[in-house]
Amino acid sequence: MSRILLFAILSLGCLQSFAQDLNYAKKTISTLTSKKYWGRGYTNNGMGKAADFIENEFKKFGLSPLSGNSYKQFFSFPVNTFPSNMSLKLNGKTLIPGKDFIVHQASKGTTASDSLIQKDSTTYLSKSGQIAISLQPKLTWSVSQQALDYTIVEVNKNSVSLPLSHIELNMTNELVPNFTAANVGAIIKGTTKPDSILVFTAHYDHLGGMGSKTFFPGANDNASGVAMLLDLAKYYAVHPPKYSVAFICFAAEEAGLLGSKYFTENPLIPLKNIRFLWNLDLVGTGETGATVVNATIHAQEFALLNKINNEKQLLAKINARGKAANSDHYFFTEKGVPAFFLYTQGGIAAYHDVDDKAETLPLTAYENLFKLFVDFSTAITN
């Protein structure tokens, strides 16, 4: 048996031992979606606790900081938060935050008891004109960097009986002008070409909490991507490749890709040295395959990805998509860094809601995705 063949067999065995065990991913996702981390957002120090968790994992695996002695890159921005009161009654019926209603992320806090006037089939206004009720088929929350001077409440249309005539609302907001967050990054030096870098990124923030009793777990978005990134870091720490491999977890993606924008404007590694970047976001499903953003921009790399996938039969299908500003790869693309953003498809439909939970996330394609990332990275460095 040749030394090359022997090395290939041994390498394959090592990869399988890492890739076939879902326990680490499940444990990581369960941890990050727990009440302790409060949706990895802007109240109860949820995002800060998540950053500490990621930093400790990097240290445990023996990775080095991207630059200097700190794994964290701090930055600040304004954000509208909802730290405490969050109650709503419509026509005397008490509604459940997150399930029956959400407050628009830019809303102003208010306490009111008022009559409602119907404006159209889905909209009601309070008599004072300061509160709007919008009936929705699905509740989807987000993050705002500003606060309006009025209040918008989105209500699940299946949770109320129409017409609406009266509202009782008690909701508190706090606009934080300089909320401080941190990107968390680490690196494994390459064995022969340390100045060439492969990069894996994932945002670790989510939506946080809406009031003192409701938080958004964010299992698929994006505890799944963080789990995959950390699992890859664990693997490469034991199997360092020729190129250096960097791992960056971004904050404030949900607030407008703020962490990745800040990083590209204040890079801790030379952007020109990045051979390729993978952004991992929404990778917890995969029954029907995955989609790759920037596939049409980097046709050669996408062809290589499909070649590996077809030979190994890892994913049902990989769909090509063009350039899109829909996750943390975008500002790297704008700086000329070759990058793909991959997200899986099929399975649960939970997104930006309270149902994006660890216990219902199938992780259908997780093992094969892991293999695909490693095989692609090996191929592209050769």
TrEMBL record:
Q: Which residues form the signal peptide?
A: 1-19
Q: Which UniProt keywords apply?
A: Signal
Q: Write down the Pfam families for this protein, in alphabetical order.
A: Peptidase_M28
Is Signal tagged as a keyword? yes
The protein's GO terms of the molecular function aspect are: metalloexopeptidase activity
- Keyword Signal included in the entry's annotation: yes
Segments forming domain Peptidase M28? 183-374
**InterPro entries associated with the record:** M28_fam, Peptidase_M28
Superkingdom of this protein's organism: Bacteria
The Gene Ontology biological process annotation of the record reads:
proteolysis
- Parts forming coiled coils: none
Q: Spell out the protein name for this chain.
A: M28 family peptidase
Q: Which organism is it from?
A: Pedobacter chitinilyticus
